[in-house]
Amino acid sequence: MKRVIERTVQALLGMSVLITVILSVLIFSSFPGFFDQQTPKNEETEESITEESITEESITEDVLIRPRDLSLQKELDEYLFQHGLDEQSISYRITDLDNHEIYTFNEETDFFAASVYKLPLAMLYEDLIDEGVYTRESLFYFAYSMIEDYGYLLSLYSPGSNVPLGDLLDIMIAYSDNSAGHILFEYMGGWLGYKNAMMAYTDVDCQEFYTYDNITCAAVMSDVVNHLYENKERYAHLIDIMEEAEPGRFLDGNISISMPQKYGSYEDACNSVGFVDGSIPYTIVVLTSLGSYGEKVMADLNEIVYRHIVSDVSLQ
User: Which of 185, 227, 239, 274 has its CA 20 to 30 A from that of 175?
Assistant: First the structure.
């Protein structure tokens, strides 16, 4: 009997120990983070790395991306207001090629293009020369029907003669010669053939572009001059002629840096298209129906742009 009692007591003691262990585990496991403390993390190190990464990313963004120059758009708007210029008299589009910002007014309204059509026409032939279709020595027949006026071409070549392509291109841009332009668009498949071909440089449709009227809009010409700048190695010779054509006039009137441009002036139309390859490059298109006064307006507008985009940035 005594042995039975001893065994019972021992069993009870064993059970009490087991129950105590189980209760202890349950009690301590109820505290948050108890077992987490067994595998501590280097929270300070991870936090420091995260903060450092964020800081470096912010610095990179500040270096690569400048904020939009709201004061430039405001000054351009104020100039138009102060001089009473509206949608009927002016259109412009300026593209900051470094920051991919666009400043624009009335960019899709049609204006009479005058001679700015000669820029994409010249670019099309430069492309064909680059592709080996033509050389600068290729000869183009100068028919009597292609005479537009008595320009520089007629002082060198008579109707009925063959003119080298290089001469036609240089004379068309340097002297804005209309007969040279006529010869070149005729060999492009006529006026509408030329218009269809030049649309390779833009995906913008002017309201009445596909007509026999010589019209364009700032949005189209902006795409053209942007393509010119982006491929300036291919168009290096053309750009050289553009620089020599009208230094100190039109867009270059106030800044006088011999910027490459192609102007167009006929009756009320006074237009120009060009770019400034400064520390911050930009393209600019100004189309007007202001007659000779348009030359002063575009010179003033380009001076405002030049001061904001090139001069101010170079001083930062």
Answer: 227
CATH number for 287: 3.40.710.10
- Packed helices 218-230 and 118-130: angle between N→C axes, nearest 10 degrees: 30
- Report the candidate in 278, 271, 275 with the shortest Cα–Cα distance to residue 243: 275
Answer yes or no: are the C-beta atoms of 216 and 204 closer than 8 Å: no
pLDDT at position 194 over 80: yes
**Domains of the chain: total:** 2
Do residues 93 and 221 both lie within one domain? yes
d(Cα 295, Cα 297) in Å, to the nearest integer?
6
Residue 41 has, within 13 A of its CA and on its CB side, a CA count of: 8
Q: Is residue 161 located within the same domain as residue 292?
A: yes
Reported as a pLDDT band with limits 50, 70 and 90, residue 106 is very high
pTM of the model: 0.78
**157-163: long-range contacts, CB 8 A cutoff, minimum separation 24:** 163/139
The residue segments making up the domain with residue 11 are 1-33
Verify that 26 and 165 share a domain, yes or no: no
Q: How far apart are CA 258 and CA 260, in angstroms?
A: 6
